[in-house]
Amino acid sequence: PPTGGAHESIGRLMIEKICMVLIFVGVAVGVGIYCRRHTGSVDGFILGGRNVGPWLSAFAFGTSYFSAVIFVGYAGQFGWKYGVAATWIGIGNAILGSLLAWWVLGPRTREMTHRLGASTMPEFFGARFQSKGLRIAAAAIIFVFLIPYTASVYNGLSRLFGMAFGLPYEVCVIGMAVITCVYVVLGGYMATVMNDFIQGIVMLLGIVAVIVAVLVNNGGFTEALTTLSLIPAEGSEMAGPFVSFFGPNLPDLIGVIVLTSLGTWGLPQMVQKFYAIKSGPAIKQGAIISTVFAMVVAGGSYFLGGFGRLYGDQVEMTAAGTPVYDSIMPTMLSTLPDLLIGIVIVLVLSASMSTLSSLVLTSSSTLTLDLLKDNVVKNMSEKKQLVYMRVLIVVFIVISAVIALVQYNSSITFIAQLMSISWGALAGSFLGPFFWGLYSRRVSRPAVWASFIVGVGLTTGNMIAGFVGTAFIASPINCGAIAMVLSLIIVPVVSLFTKRVEFEVDPPHVEGAIDREYEQELEAE
What we know:
The protein is mainly alpha-helical. 74% of the residues lie in helices and 0% in strands. Helix 5 packs antiparallel against helix 13 and helix 7 packs parallel to helix 18.
């Protein structure tokens, strides 16, 4: 056991890490208090008055995209499976999930939701397809599948905080829930995006520092790559599989890229960032900023995870001899200097809180505006809407925290399965109707219903089949990717044989119209 000076050194390092976390918490709460002035209206509370600049919007998009689930869970799991080829997932996230999403969806989404007066995705479906039933169904899907995904955000924290502070998982979950609750309830969307910007900077700096440190620990990039090339892959005769261009299993790698990249096009918490951004050049600027952010954070995380097998003798294993994927990244990071461990803790806390705040704000606004308003509570005034949303933010954070604690302290596997299919079910339901609803006049209500049914039915049916016997599609990730592609195909095909909803989408040059609107805003200012 350490004595004398060693005790003092350990105590000093612990104090430094605690101070870093406390400063981070203080800034987050301070931003929430500062942004209270933007929360006087529903539009201000959930969209920041649709006047958010490109830097804040781009960082909000990126930090909502990449949580502790990516950094701790996915990077460790897919880095172990595919080696450095897992970097392709991050590249796909940057190009398909960020750049193309901004270019294709951003201008049209901003303009059309503004014209329809839609603040949420269900509200867009209801107005675009002139159907109250679709609006309610979309809100119900979001409620069912966003809450377990919210709970999964907590999971990446347990091992890291245990490694650094010796704190139990329960303390980490409750602490993060309380802090996030305070600043989102106080400052709404503006507090979320301003904190996302600060947290995004931490994530960028932290990822770069950690990659450099891990490679140095393994003798540098060349030596680490050489050592990794000598490790064989189970069931593969490929030489150097984990340093190969596409890794040992290309089909499954493609499935992961599609799910984690194309999914952003249909996730309500992601596309909502386009509702709130300023018009005109801000969207073009935000696309570039968001892409660079994704390339560094996602590409860096998966690249780092690709070296996980270098720590194979230290990684925790199950009774069946397979690695506990959530333990891979913490094992790698445990070898770093204490100061860097402190940076990593703040990095993961940043990633988790930014995603959590976005999810609960989306859930509370959807439930208030699309389910309760005019359906359960008649004549709900704007003031009451704000009260309901704030109360529901607290409720959703509590529910997600309880789910996370129950999952962690029990052998219940259903929750974990539900978390893993959330992206597939949500994007598999919404991607086709949202994309074609923006660009095509020939979309019918039955086509939207068909997409909802297939998206939810395929992902949940596959999960249930796995419980009772054999799943139709072995990987829930591939199942989610298939659901998304089917959604894009089903909507136009079904619309060919059913009556379309009469709606005049904008002429082809929507972007020019948005630029003119932006110029008018500048003149008015």
